[in-house]
């Protein structure tokens, strides 16, 4: 079973539901083979030696939820290695269950905060970073918890290759404004504003959250590493 201490400290204030037996079985049976449990140099060594060989690029998706978008992208791009990062065990269990029905060899999982994963990557190894509908943390005192804070933008600038892309989507105006301000304040990135920010990309798959809650009201932002 996934130990409780894999849920990061900043998430412990939220109520986490007990896993259904089927999800727990998925985790117990498959997560040891799919997860990247190390940190720092040990984590990158495992990725480089046991996962990357044979693939042309490396993508990371942060907060993949139930994994609909991650799995669709992995199946559409079998030549690309993909790491899904999610702090909640429910998401990992759901994704592993979907992969049991239709195996996807180019996906690995990281149980924890994406900031820890990025800190473990060396410079210039990532081709694409995706964050769909991250928690906006709307209260002012929670600003440091928002994705694309100053530290994370620096980490992304470091790990992304020249020409690498960031794809972000949100239904919360505060989160959209926050991401634009933080990303445009960094000289390392160019906002690809020629894309229609009100239209979902054709190669993107709506997540369960998006289908339930958005009613089409979302913004889609792209940034390119100089």
Question: How would you characterize the overall build of this protein?
Answer:
The chain has 226 residues and is of the alpha/beta class. It has helices at 21-34, 41-50, 68-76, 89-101, 114-119, 150-159, 173-184, 208-213, and strands at 57-62, 80-86, 107-111, 126-132, 160-170, 189-191, 219-225. The protein has a seven-stranded mixed beta sheet, sandwiched between helices. Helix 1 packs across helix 4.
Q: Average pLDDT, to the nearest integer?
A: 84
**What is the number of E strands?**
7
Q: How many whole angstroms does the radius of gyration measure? A: 17 Å
What's the SSE pattern?
Answer: HHEHEHEHEHEHEHE
The portion of residues forming beta strands comes to 15-25%
* Spatial strand sequence of the major β-sheet: 3-2-1-4-5-7-6
Structural class given helices, strands, pairing?
Answer: alpha/beta
Which bin fits the share of residues in helices? Answer: 25-40%
What does the oligomeric state look like here? single chain
